[in-house]
Amino acid sequence: MWTTVALLVFVAVCDVKAATTGVTFTNNAYLDEAMNVFLQWRRDETTVTMQLEVQTRGMVAIGFSPNGNMPGSDIFAGYVGDDGQPYFHDFYAEAQEHPVYDGDSNQNYYDVLATENDTHTIVCFTRRIVLCDSNDKTVNNGTNRVIWAWHADDPTDERSLLYHGATNRGSRSLQILYPRTEQALPDDVQTLELLNVNYSVPGNRHTTYLCRGIKIPDLGGKKHLIRWEPVIQPGNEGAVHHFVLYTCGQEPADLDAHDGQEGICYSTMPEEWYHCTITLLAWAIGGTVFDLPQNAGISVGDTNDPRFLMLETHYDNPDMRDDIVDSSGLRLYLTSTLRTNEVGVLQVAVDVGQSQKIPPGSASHTTVAHCYSECLQQGMEDASLTALNVFGAFPHAHLAGRTVNIRHVRGANELQAIFKDEFYDFNYQETVPLEEARQILPGDSILFECTYDTTDRNDMTYGGLATQNEMCMAWLLYYPRMDLARCESWPMSDWYLTSLSATSTEYSEDKQDFIATAPANLVNLTADEILSSGVTWTDELRAAFQRGETQAARYERCMDNSNNLVHGDGTRPAPPVIEFPWVSADECSGSDAVAANIAANLLMLVMAYIIMTVM
Ligand SMILES: *[C@@H]1O[C@H](CO)[C@@H](O)[C@H](O)[C@H]1NC(C)=O
Ligand SMILES: *[C@@H]1O[C@H](CO)[C@@H](O)[C@H](O)[C@H]1NC(C)=O
Ligand SMILES: *[C@@H]1O[C@H](CO)[C@@H](O)[C@H](O)[C@H]1NC(C)=O
Ligand SMILES: *[C@@H]1O[C@H](CO)[C@@H](O)[C@H](O)[C@H]1NC(C)=O
């Protein structure tokens, strides 16, 4: 019965009445679509405190899962018994079956509390971020799969749980370790809604990219954009996959004529919009409101600021429904109370197209986008900057994406990643506010790596807009702003030709690609033509394609806001080798980890002692 007493002892630390006791949660999310399961949390240096509120008077449970399913999950369950006392337990699920009671080994949940009123049960606990017990899941820096379940009744035996049934359970992806305190808005804030208008999503295709032209209204002078949030038409939450808001290197001449026009992106949209390639901001499914740091804003409405925007909406319609009509979009918050720093957005990517080539049957293929030091340095020099402060990151890949990693290199040394997510989820993406702004200095370079799993695919995966194609694109939010907007590079295809047994190659103006000139059976063929005629994928061939990512000569796109080259002539040698890659400390082998375990166990002993003396 230690749990009962723990309630009395620790009530002040983890309390449902946060306001009166000083626990302030920094993040919250509904875990289910019905909005019955509400999670609030905050992180401290080594711990996370969570409060789960569920509309039930029975049992509630939350778990940390490797992939959204039960096996391998670390589960916390609690309820308030008929005796009015709270109960909670730590479980470990080995399979899709009743989880194993993990309470005797090392209770990882402490400062626990459970209460209920007429309608809701609320449980609250604190846990360490890093857990070194093999049955317990560390909270990741990147995306976490959180599972939840509840039951209308309490369990009859405190070591067993009631089966939640098919509906009272689920999973969702969450970024847990990045605080998102909504900031107070200045009094003069005004909003600008950029919405689609009753768009009938085509029922004959899985993926639709709709592009809409928007003339920015007269804002009455310079403003700072300080927050954005999605406005999703109720009912279309599953279909609206992402928005990217672009500005144009060259704006259409007649803005009024283009305002409110729409077309399929890069297909039926007006020619003039092909200049609209500079990302201003991006949102994707699962994301919520994004607040810029207090000292920074994105300039709009000034004389040199964009007067036209292109809103790209990605509709995902796997069931090919023909009844989806949508008016979703973005809401921007603007203020005249200007902040100290002008924000810029830098796109680091590989080209979106056939040049990104991912072999089938690969458990791990990494595409590498390299933002060369010369490009970054030139961009900084042109803007007379000695450093960039990166405060947010938005990595983007499609369905095969597993890990995304924004690496930071200075000279021979790699520094800690700007943002790394080893659990990337296509269905949950958002701009991540970094814990601390990261400084990019002249001479630094950035590598953006996307690692894919194509073991379930028989054909090549190429880069492209469709969900089944891939992308490897990251947007970095930083200040002060420079004109450099896109820093992209990707391997030249003669590398792939050589990997596919061509013994000599040349560039063909005709095909706008490299072709083989020997041996005879490959003459005049491009790498893609050879690939499409079918090749036998061996581990060796996959490895050759992988080496191309770091060893092939490259194309480079180092461009400013007006789509002019900032540096170079468009081609590059292979990226330099990083002599000293970043090695992350193993938090479970060091003395710190041992100390943390001892501390936690001591806490349990102290609690047990208190309990025994009280009882
Ligand atoms: C019960 O708790 C829930 C969740 O905190 C709250 O929304 C609801 O208003 C409470 N009901 C009563 C009657 O206090
Ligand atoms: C998470 O990021 C922090 C710094 O932001 C780092 O110290 C820590 O090692 C990372 N943890 C993991 C598991 O990568
Ligand atoms: C969109 O369609 C709805 C329902 O037909 C209609 O009420 C609304 O006025 C339309 N919105 C616009 C902006 O045309
Ligand atoms: C390759 O293309 C060139 C130019 O189009 C042509 O002259 C030549 O006959 C072709 N060779 C083969 C083997 O198809």
UniProtKB/TrEMBL annotation:
Residues 35-151 form the DOMON domain. It comes from Branchiostoma floridae (Florida lancelet). GO terms for molecular function: copper ion binding; dopamine beta-monooxygenase activity. GO terms for biological process: dopamine catabolic process; norepinephrine biosynthetic process; octopamine biosynthetic process. This is DBH-like monooxygenase protein 1 homolog isoform X1. Its cofactor is Cu(2+). The gene is LOC118418289. PANTHER family: DOPAMINE BETA HYDROXYLASE RELATED (PTHR10157), MOXD1 HOMOLOG 1 (PTHR10157:SF23). Residues 1-18 form the signal peptide.
